Amino acid sequence: MTARIIDGLLLSQQLRAEVAERTAELTARGYQPGLAVILVGNNVASQIYVRNKIKACNDNGLYSVYDCYTDDLTEADLLTRIGVLNSDPKIHGILVQLPLPPHINAYKIIEMIAPEKDVDGFHIANAGALMTGKPLFRPCTASGVLKMLEYQGIPLAGANAVVIGRSNIVGKPIAMLLVQADATVTICGRKTRDLAVHTRSADIIVAATGKRNLVTASMVKPGATVIDVGISRDDDGKLCGDVDFASVREVAGYLTPVPGGVGPMTITMLLISTIEAADRAAGGNGCDCTRLSGGLCSTRLQTLLI
Ligand code: NAD
Fold first, then answer.
1. CB of 261 closer than 6 angstroms to any ligand 1 atom
2. SS (H, E, C) the chain
3. What is the pTM assigned to this prediction?
């Protein structure tokens, strides 16, 4: 069997056409969706991610602000800046690129973002509400993964899903969304005794570790769906994921590539979250945002904020 490739670039292009259309509608009503992206320090990978996010805003008609600080920025100054963005009506979404330099407490910074502008979905109000299935925003990578599975029509209810990686910002939210879709979910991490025992019985494997070639063909059940979230570089400096693409392709039913898989979907879901936030600011009823991503309506927002 040769796996069908789930093309994240293609799906992103389709969704971004809707993003641009919806952005134009909101802009015409005086609510151009606006995203503020903050980068502190000179982490090369972060600089690339941030540039791609700003470019995606520009390409699709969103307003964007890019704050790029040197790594001697104080925590107090960053908190102040977020406070200003929280009350800026042109900004509907605020994203602080992680990791932050060690002298800045990332938890404190994320908690400073107004939950209704927390398009990354990392604020405790949204992370907590994810548990109940009703966050204002779902973390972008996790919702991108679910979007890819839905788009491909992969059955989730009753499926055995294994998520490898259990970080707060990637692995756990993916697992939570799979649980909400009625999958039976196993979460594996570094201390998992025998990873292959779990993955071999999985209908869906989501690998999110950053460990190159962690998932090999012998760990995959024939016909399974394999989603590769990981990003690392091979010995030649080429981007690669957690999955040994060449061998797993011969066993899996569906497989996402790196690059061109989950990465573009993460950015697309960020744009969608920003549109949802702008729609709520415009007093929208949420129907329009659900068309794109199954987001919450503004009445739901009001319920959550009181
Ligand atoms: P992290 O370092 O915070 O977490 C990695 C997780 O993987 C941990 O829970 C750890 O226990 C687990 N892990 C590590 N080695 C393992 C092993 N050998 N076996 C089982 N589990 C193991 O990283 P993160 O922020 O969760 O990101 C994970 C990966 O996803 C990274 O490569 C990151 O670059 C990538 N990422 C991709 C996107 C995207 O849009 N494609 C977005 C965010 C993160």
1. no
2. CCCEECCHHHHHHHHHHHHHHHHHHHHHCCCCCEEEEEEECCCHHHHHHHHHHHHHHHHCCCEEEEEEECCCCCHHHHHHHHHHHHCCCCCCEEEECCCCCCCCCHHHHHHHCCHHHCCCCCCHHHHHHHHHCCCCCCCHHHHHHHHHHHHCCCCCCCCEEEEECCCCCCHHHHHHHHHHCCCEEEEECCCCCCHHHHHCCCCEEEECCCCCCCECHHHCCCCCEEEECCCEECCCCCEECCECHHHHCCCCCEECCCCCCHHHHHHHHHHHHHHHHHHHHCCCCCHHHHHHHCCCCHHHHHHHHC
3. 0.94
